[in-house]
């Protein structure tokens, strides 16, 4: 198990789903975890409690993403809880629903990009002065940016493709400081985002069939990959998009 003792991690959108699993895993590995949430206050409190109950250290901060001044407010809340950061995980995001291309409204498009693209960009921009040399940035992307084309998720995939580009660009920018920047691309995972598909036996079977491993991904499957990238074991990995979809594109 990676040793993150003495490290401080910020995980956005950590009140539920993949974000919660990432926060819990980093906490188990020894990191002090700052659990960000926008509206899932109860979920964030549960995440913090689980980390503390396991002997770890965690606290929650609230900041709505996708609105003006979001990054400043997030880091202002962070600074009240911690001094400097070693690991930043940009996990918070919105799907926007499965909407036919012709029916995507400007409002939906703008919301998706505000949360999924604009917010992580400025969270990182404002976070660089706090990110210690030798730190880690992990961006949660999606399999839909690499060969898995779904027209009903066009805006979502576009928003994450921009994050993939940012990942590679920042890897070059921050390399001289020993900071690695990588992205992970989950596929269909058992989270609230897929609640409708998980509600039926047919939907669950379809999700499981996407992977040659013939099962539905759990948030912990993705969290373990993020934990590797956040650790010293991944010190020679940077600027990469890592498939976290269970081989769904084979």
From TrEMBL:
One of its GO terms (molecular function) is oxidoreductase activity. Belongs to the short-chain dehydrogenases/reductases (SDR) family. It comes from Flexivirga aerilata. This is SDR family oxidoreductase. Keywords: Oxidoreductase. The keyword Oxidoreductase applies. PANTHER family: OXIDOREDUCTASE, SHORT-CHAIN DEHYDROGENASE/REDUCTASE FAMILY (AFU_ORTHOLOGUE AFUA_5G02870), SHORT-CHAIN DEHYDROGENASE_REDUCTASE FAMILY PROTEIN. The keyword Zinc does not apply. It comes from the Bacteria. Residues 7-187 form the Ketoreductase domain. Transmembrane segments: none annotated. Pfam families: adh_short_C2.
